[in-house]
Amino acid sequence: MKAYWFDNVPGDQRDPHDSGREVSPAYLAKLGILHYNYPNVEDVDALASQRSYKNRDEITISPKTMGDVYEEKVKTFFHEHLHEDEEIRYILDGGGFFDVRSEGDDWVRIKLEKHDLMIMPAGIYHRFTTDTENYTKAMRLFKEDPKWTPLTRGGETDKNPYRQDYLKTRNG
Ligand code: KMT
Ligand code: NI
User: Fold this and answer.
1) Which numbered atom of ligand 1 lies nearest the CA of 138?
2) Ligand 1: lining residues by beta carbon, under 6 Å
3) CATH of the domain at 161
4) Substitution candidate for ligand 1 out of 14, 57, 59 with most atoms within 8 A of CB
5) Full residue range of the structural domain in which residue 130 is found
């Protein structure tokens, strides 16, 4: 895992877009983001059971598994959105980028590699993309009642109660 400020330079979303300015683990914690590296899936099982996550699935995002719809899917994952529940992702193979909004509404890019696990809080605006390898195999964890339908940013989402709660926690 590596976190840095997104450079905002036009170009393929899958390029690194690394401004060269790193973002500290302390700042990620301030945004409510937790990160672990778990080479053993037993550690993922333990975390899931502690947080009462009963379900999971696996997704492989690549041209090989998705064929013609791959490019379209990659664009969809990159639409800025929030969820009404926390989002837990565990990278099984390959890698990718999650971009999350900072306090000043800038993008922080989080590069995830094999065995990285990230927890994003409910209400944080974010987006995802594969990198130039075009291969992400990830486990998506969810509770019984998954509330991670993406709510695309715009108008009403700023007033979403989960968004409001997130801002209250983040801003102390
Ligand atoms: C999301 O919320 O954008 C995703 O779950 C992306 C696919 S999982 C790496
Ligand atoms: Ni999401």
Assistant:
1) 9
2) 59, 77, 87, 89, 96, 128, 136, 138, 140
3) 2.60.120.10
4) 59
5) 2-166
pLDDT category of residue 42 using cuts at 50, 70 and 90: very high
In a domain, 172, yes or no: no
Domain tally, the chain: 1
> To test the ligand 1 pocket, which listed residue (109, 114, 140, 142) has its Cβ within 8 A of the most ligand atoms?
140
Which tokens belong to 66? 């998705």
- Residues 118, 98: contact at Cβ < 8 Å? yes
Residue 74 lies in a domain: yes
The 10 Å Cβ neighbour count of residue 151 is 19
What pLDDT sits at residue 148?
62
Tell whether ipTM is more than 0.85. yes
